[in-house]
Amino acid sequence: MSTFKAPKGTYDLLPPDSAKFLAVREAIAAPLRNSGYGYIETPGFENVELFSRGVGESTDIVTKEMYVFETKGGDRLALRPETTAPVLRAVLEANLHKAGNLPVKVWYSGSQYRYERPQKGRYRHFSQVGAEAIGAEDPALDAELIILADQSYRALGLRNFRILLNSLGDQECRPVYRTALQDFLRGLDLDEETLRRAEINPLRVLDDKRPEVQKQLTGAPLLRDYLCDACKAYHEEVRDLITAAGVVFEDDAKLVRGLDYYTRTTFEFVHDGLGSQSAVGGGGRYDGLSEMIGGPSLPSVGWALGVDRTVLALEAEGIELDIPSATSVFAVPLGEEARRILFAKVTELRKNGVAADFSYGGKGLKAAMKAANRSGARYALVLGERDLADGVVQLKDMESGEQTAIGVNEIVAELESRLG
Length: 420
Ligand code: AMP
Prior knowledge:
420 residues, alpha+beta, BirA Bifunctional Protein, domain 2, 8-stranded mixed β-sheet, 16 helices
């Protein structure tokens, strides 16, 4: 062990488990790639204002959880706590929304940073795969995103997750509801901070996880009863489309989510095997965000799925992903000359697309075969003194244990044909 440890609230992804993370990212990305979403990558940090304006001054993310720093040049930056605002910033900056092809559909994959109180499933550095569809108001787009997230979770084999769905209304109806909710909250027995929150962002109080607060919230006015006709019709259409796609969801009239920018459709994917950190992903429509960060009106919708928690969900369901072994062939040279010959063969195999590895460090046969075993390779190539004299190499099928001598010059062709 060195003097240093991973910072609090972080952990390292190490082989072989890291392969699971890559597989989860890939499983989430695959349906997006297949549905017209292009890959986007933005910096790990942004101007702090992008988040305070975009995510919202009253959110926990902005008030408590951002890693803010000043550069030597005097810029105030923040490590990104989420990637929707950065993606929209990038799309606006590149004028992708003016290319006459709306919606702009993009997906991303990357690290997020939040200074949270660490616990299982809640980290200060975590990973999300996200999708954003920018510049179109169409219930089919909201439905598409929900269907695709469902599809990726099902492809991973997950079953014990639920989709919670709600509508947060729009500029028309939300203010009316906001006032009604505020009136209700003012009459409750709440601590000072919560009362303050009720003034700045009353909807967030609905999200309070404390039982003593939740108990008082029974009977709170629900946005559902305040939706304007346009929002109601929009929401009905989203529900119809995902129902028609066979995606099961639950209406959750109290679902508000932690970011300020959501309008209309909001949803969360929760997994029942994760304890208190049960949200594995979430998203919704954010029609006002573009204007909040100085752009034109660009109604948009998106989601982010947490990779870390999705991996935990797989573990909770006891799902072993079928991850093919990284190495197909493992070469074991015994002696100097064998080493040169086999190293050249391994290089050639790799050039031909065969995943091959090599026993390094002059190991003896026993230790080298152990390494071959551990690599998960289907075949081992063993080249000893006597084989050298005969111009052959021993090809061992690690599954059946069967061993055959083949000519050194046949190695590549033989393995290519055996591995198909
Ligand atoms: P949010 O951006 O807060 O809507 O979160 C979207 C998803 O990211 C959540 O459902 C989680 O899966 C994941 N996530 C958010 N915060 C954390 C965290 N601190 N640690 C691990 N995963 C997180």
